[in-house]
Amino acid sequence: MEAVQLTGMRDVIGEILIELGKEISDLVVITADVGKPTRVYNFGQKFPDRYYNVGIAEQHMIDFAAGLASAGALPIVAAFAMFILRAWEQIRNTVARMNLNVKIVATHAGYSDHADGSSHQALEDIAVMRVIPHVNVVVPADIADIRRSFRAIVAEVRGPVYYRIGRDYAPPITEDHNYEFTLGRAYTLRDGHDVTIIGAGPILYEALIAAEMLKKMGVSASVINLLSIKPIDVDTIEKTARATGRIVTIEEHVIYGGIGSAVAEVIAERYPVPMRFIGAKTFGRSAKSVRELLDYFNINSKAIVKTCLEVIKYGDRRA
């Protein structure tokens, strides 16, 4: 059968896995009957003896990966983010409690599976994964971020990682930025002094558009790429809170327990400032595009501008 052609974020994952497969002899890829849509199928064509499709059995997929990790292999599991949630108990009890070196690639997250509706749109996964001890959570912004981070996640980071990406929607966000990925680091995409916008994933494209709109209004906005949600970069968050005195978070995820909550936990302890949260508040729905859903649920650049202007009204809390 012909290999799947490369077109988006998930395709880059498949491409890098093949590169890593040539370098790491004990790297194994496991999927739950979604090898083609997650793009790990191409790895299976190159390394059939290190590729396993366990069928529609996500719980088994995680337990199988845990067993392989216990035996010294380096397992990568790949499935839709929504259906990886079926295996939350196995991730907690079998992988995390033993701090096993299992990498979980969660594709089709957020609104990216726009056509399939709320049953396939994972808007709660960051919240439920970041509460598990030992599980690191990484959300790349775009293809350039994947190229910076995924290789390091697999080859250098020890322990479980939940690596969250979308399907195809991947506007360029970080291509012009020159930084190396370090787990636990956030990255400043734009400096400002009036308000800080913090987010992760493709939704940061809306943040950059909003920052340009605010500039035309005389408002200077910082934009922070919270690539590593757990561990979180407390120093960068405190620094930007002190510099701008206001924070707005944006996420393609529910506002309960996600990126906004993670940032608020840091702010509450280190340097409290006024905050506002933009994100989902309910389930998704079927649509023709991600763009249609972001506009329908008011998770876009216009909402960011409006919210930034509102939070600025609450006064200056800078040191």
Radius of gyration: 19 Å
Largest sheet: 7 strands, mixed
Any idea of the CATH topology of the largest domain? Rossmann fold
**Averaging pLDDT over every residue, what do you get?**
95
Can you offer a commentary on this structure?
The termini are far apart. This protein has 13 helices and twelve strands. Mean pLDDT is 95; it is low at 1-6. The chain folds into two domains: 9-164, Thiamin diphosphate (ThDP)-binding fold, Pyr/PP domains (Rossmann fold, 3-Layer(aba) Sandwich); 187-312, Rossmann fold. 39% of the residues lie in helices and 18% in strands. With 319 residues, the protein is an alpha/beta fold. Helix 1 runs parallel beside helix 8 (143-155), helix 9 packs across helix 13 (301-312) and helix 10 packs across helix 11. The strands form two sheets. The protein has a seven-stranded mixed β-sheet with strand order 2-1-3-4-6-5-10, sandwiched between helices. A five-stranded mixed β-sheet has the order 7-9-8-11-12, sandwiched between helices.
Short description:
The chain is α/β, with parallel strands linked by helices and 319 residues long. 39% of the residues lie in helices and 18% in strands.
What is the fold's blueprint, element by element?
Elements: H1 9-23, E1 27-31, H2 35-38, H3 41-46, E2 51-53, H4 58-70, E3 74-80, H5 81-84, H6 88-96, E4 103-107, H7 125-130, E5 136-138, H8 143-155, E6 161-164, E7 187-190, E8 195-199, H9 204-216, E9 221-225, E10 228-230, H10 234-244, E11 247-254, H11 259-270, E12 275-280, H12 290-296, H13 301-312
Parallel strand pairs: 1-2, 1-3, 3-4, 4-6, 5-6, 8-9, 8-11, 11-12
Antiparallel strand pairs: 5-10, 7-9
